[in-house]
Design brief:
By secondary structure, the chain is of the alpha/beta class. The chain is built from 10 helices and 9 strands. It folds into 2 domains: about 120 residues, Serine Threonine Protein Phosphatase 5, Tetratricopeptide repeat, CATH 1.25.40; about 180 residues, Rossmann fold.
Amino acid sequence: MKRTLFPLIFLALITSCKTSSLMIDVLRPANINLPGDIRTLAVVNRSLPSKEAEVNNLVEGIITGEGLLADRFGSRACVAGFADALQSSQRFRVVVPDIELKGTGTDRMPPLLEWPVIDDICRQNGADALLSLETFDSNTGGVLFSILNRTPGENLTIKVESGWRIYDPERKQLLDENIYIDHFNWDAPASGAGPSRQEVVERGGYYAGTQYAARISPSWVSASRIFFKKGNRDFREAKRLVRMGMFDEAARIWETYVDHPNRKIAGYACYNMALVCELNSDLEGALQWATRSYRQYRIRKAAEYMNILNYRIMQAEVLDQQLTE
């Protein structure tokens, strides 16, 4: 499990008077738990309209000025975003059959798929469950702007809405139904040099797919951490080692100060030892050091860190269950 929880470290250090901060990636549990016997997912795009609905959507697109093909390409990007996000999943394998089912072509959810259809798709693709992008809809709007001494352009906003369902053919159950909505803003120069509406819809669709993947599978998220750089000359040397990614070497310096007669220096050293333990996936050890920093030396930031670590320990238990089912 330690290998799974090991955080990715980005040495983009942000410095303040007493502390520096760095970004790490930590593994976050999925929002929902799927049955443990579901390992392979077949993913289909059902958001495209039928012929009859396509005519209605064409009229609507002309009236509203929406790109007629934007949602078609955006929905395909949405499926691709989901599949790409799970490429490195330790649990799920994703299969994308070369089929597209017909739906409403709008933000309205269609009726549930028939179980014989679900059974056929899963059997033909060796899948344990069927994940269907049931709806995909985007709306764009723009406000012209003109800033003194700047090129006129347009501030554009896009709303992307995607609806998902997961069907379990073995249990004949709907395991999940979720609608994801997000908004994106960007400034487009009047020259048209910026991305087109279709390009932005595709980007928004791809992102929506990655977000649904995070709903059903553990995912990496960025988190900020601090360490104390101020104390004495050795602390400055430890900071230099951190910049070089030499955390264990920095820890050897900090560990010599955890019982220092100067209570602030000792508290800072204990806090920094907690960070090194977290980076080495020793969350219990990290909590012990952070607790000592706060209770013995009254370092207030250590109390905040204790809350973070307690939450990560609870998440680790959920991750264990999700990854070993």
